[in-house]
Amino acid sequence: MKEPLKIGLMDSGMGGLSVLKEILKYETELEVIYFGDLKNSPYGEKNASTILELTRDVCKRLIQEDVKAILLACNTATSAAAETLRKEFSIPIFGMEPAIKPAILQNPGKRVALLATPVTQKEEKLQKLKKDLKADDLLLPVSCPGLAGLVDRGDFIGAEEYLKPILKKLREEGVEIVVLGCTHYVFLKEILLKNIPELKLYDGNSGTIKHLLNSLGKKNPNLGSTEGEGIDYKLLLNSEENFHFELADRLLNSKSGV
Ligand code: DGL
């Protein structure tokens, strides 16, 4: 039997599991090794050179597992490290992109809020994307320092409290289109919709996985009938806390978010 292609996924912590969930919807010969750098999470408030070092270390760790490609399932790591690491490693390095483009194109003239970490908001990659889309006037950047950390701790009540003033501002400004520019925030969809059901939420997960599978030569892979069918995965979390492993399981197995 043909060996499945082994790929690595990395994130600062739990966020990339939302991306892993998206891959697991497909039936294709892949094996996924996921590394959550919980010892160093969250990344979003660190400086770019520290994030580059941490991401490089995680990629080296994944390469020891013999992965043939790596997806930085983290917008922050992508912004701070993808370009450099693509030059350093011989295997393909993929990254995330906030779904601003579909959000703007599918909602012409409407304002779009981008929720992301301070690093993602500040880095060159996003500035370039905004310039290419001529989206500066329509985009409302909302930096969320600390929010990913709440997800990593499984503190969804704290996350809701955190989001309330942000949601109030969106309501006041009449903004209903929201891009989740951090893979952790995908686990907060239900909370966001519970507070404002009219919100139209965008994230980059499904687009990224389609692009990844296509680039790996997996043309038109089938969507499985049950999540998780067909693809094997292994979770590596550098945490000594039991609850991190329980939370990872819970997030991976929940139908929606929390
Ligand atoms: N999941 C990450 C992202 O997509 C990182 C969040 C963090 O570590 O601050 O940006």
Automatic annotation (TrEMBL):
Work out whether the entry's keyword set contains ATP-binding.
no
Q: Name one GO molecular function term.
A: glutamate racemase activity
Q: Which UniProt keywords apply?
A: Cell shape, Cell wall biogenesis/degradation, Isomerase, Peptidoglycan synthesis
Q: Which chemical reaction does it catalyze?
A: L-glutamate = D-glutamate
Residue ranges spanning the membrane: these are none
Secretion signal, residue range per the UniProt entry:
none
The active site annotation covers 74 (proton donor/acceptor), 182 (proton donor/acceptor)
Which residues are involved in binding substrate? 11-12, 43-44, 75-76, 183-184
Q: EC number(s) of the enzyme?
A: 5.1.1.3
Pathway per the UniProt entry: Cell wall biogenesis; peptidoglycan biosynthesis
GO BP terms: cell wall organization; peptidoglycan biosynthetic process; regulation of cell shape
Function (record text): Provides the (R)-glutamate required for cell wall biosynthesis.
User: Which family is it part of?
Assistant: Belongs to the aspartate/glutamate racemases family.
NCBIfam families found in the cross-reference section: glut_race (TIGR00067)
Q: Any idea what this protein is called?
A: Glutamate racemase
User: Upper taxonomic classification of the species?
Assistant: Bacteria, Pseudomonadati, Spirochaetota, Spirochaetia, Leptospirales
